[in-house]
Backbone:
C-alpha cells in the first residue's frame, strides 16, 4: 500500500484533492472532487508490477472487492511497455461491501488522457497487465470514499 500514489486534476489546473491510506481491511481512496478550473478527477495508482499479468493470464473478468459510497468509479489497467491502458466503470452502493465483476471483453482501450485509443488492440489481454489504478471522474462533484479490499482475476463472470 505504501507504493500507491495519487494523481489529481491540479496537474491540469483543477483543485480536486485525494489521499490513499490503509484502513478497514483495504486501500482507502478518499477526497473531494471540484469542478473549478475545468477540474473533476482524482486517481489512486499502484506501482508497476509484471506479476499482475502473470497472475491474471487467461482471466475472463477482473473482480473488484470494495465498499463504495454510491458513486461510479473506474478501474484502469496499465499494459506493460505500451502507451495505452484499458478502463471499465463500476457503480458502487453506498456503505455496501460488494464484489464487482468486470468482464475482460468490456474493458475499453484508452490513451494517456482516457480518450479512445484506436491503435490499441480492441480486447484486453489480462496477461499484459502491469498496473492498477482507481479513478473517480465524470463530474461527480463533492466528497468521495471507496475502500478497495482486493482486485483479482477470475475465469468466471
Residues:
Amino acid at each position: 500500500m505504501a507504493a500507491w500514489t495519487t494523481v489529481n486534476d491540479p496537474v491540469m489546473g483543477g483543485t480536486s484533492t485525494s489521499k490513499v491510506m490503509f484502513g478497514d481491511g483495504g486501500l482507502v481512496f478518499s477526497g473531494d472532487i471540484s469542478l473549478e478550473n475545468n477540474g473533476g478527477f482524482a486517481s489512486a495508482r499502484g506501482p508497476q508490477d509484471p506479476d499482475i499479468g502473470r497472475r491474471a493470464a487467461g482471466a475472463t473478468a477482473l473482480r473488484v472487492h470494495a465498499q463504495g459510497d454510491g458513486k461510479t468509479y473506474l478501474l484502469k489497467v496499465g499494459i506493460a511497455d505500451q502507451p495505452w491502458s484499458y478502463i471499465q466503470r463500476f457503480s458502487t452502493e453506498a456503505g455496501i461491501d460488494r464484489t464487482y465483476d468486470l468482464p475482460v471483453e468490456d474493458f475499453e482501450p484508452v490513451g494517456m488522457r482516457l480518450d479512445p485509443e484506436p491503435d490499441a488492440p480492441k480486447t484486453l489481454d489480462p496477461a499484459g497487465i502491469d498496473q492498477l489504478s482507481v479513478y473517480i471522474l465524470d463530474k461527480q462533484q463533492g466528497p468521495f470514499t471507496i475502500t478497495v479490499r482486493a482486485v483479482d482475476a477470475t475465469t468466471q463472470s
User: Anything to note?
Assistant: The chain has a mean pLDDT of 95. The helical segments are 51-56. Residues 20 and 29 are 5 Å apart (CA to CA).
